[in-house]
Design brief:
Elements lengths: L5 E5 L3 H13 L3 E5 L2 H10 L4 E5 L7 H9 L4 H4 L3 E5 L7 H7 L3 E4 L4 H12 L1
Parallel strand pairs: 1-2, 1-3, 3-4, 4-5
Helix pairs in contact: 2-3
Protein name: CAI-1 autoinducer sensor kinase/phosphatase CqsS
Keywords: Kinase, Phosphoprotein, Transferase, Two-component regulatory system
Organism: Cecembia lonarensis (strain CCUG 58316 / KCTC 22772 / LW9)
Length: 125
């Protein structure tokens, strides 16, 4: 039996969270959703995840700041988790900006769910 992969979705839009959950749960991923970067760090302190989908623009702590904090964690499994940016403002950033922040990849909004799923599978294979 294959293990269920756990994906943490950090996104402040309930619509995007619900659509993302539906797409990923159909592929048997276990989804946990939070609304900001502080909640990501709280969840990560208590649980292990296989991948994080990280919105860049969130209240309280944005995706770049949160990713930087994750990469600084002492636990190497948590510090090296694949993180995929979700952003509608991708033109404000280059892939170099994302890589410098520690992000592994990005998916732009509006989300193409086939591309999102392919990106998740790429980082979890």
């Amino acid at each position: 039996m294959t293990q269920v992969r756990k994906v943490l979705v950090a996104e402040d839009s309930s619509v995007i969270i619900n659509l993302t959950k539906n797409v990923l749960m159909f592929e048997n991923y276990h989804i946990t959703a939070v609304k900001n970067g502080k909640q990501v760090l709280e969840k990560l302190a208590k649980e292990d995840f296989d991948l994080i989908l990280m919105d860049i623009n969130m209240p309280e702590m944005d995706g770049i700041e949160c990713t930087t904090a994750i990469r600084a964690l002492e636990n190497p499994n948590k510090a090296n988790i694949p993180i995929v940016a979700i952003t509608g403002n991708y033109k404000n950033y280059t892939m170099d900006d994302f890589k410098k922040a520690g992000l592994n990849d990005y998916v732009q909004k509006p989300l193409d769910y086939d591309h999102l799923l392919a990106t998740v599978k790429k980082h979890l294979s």
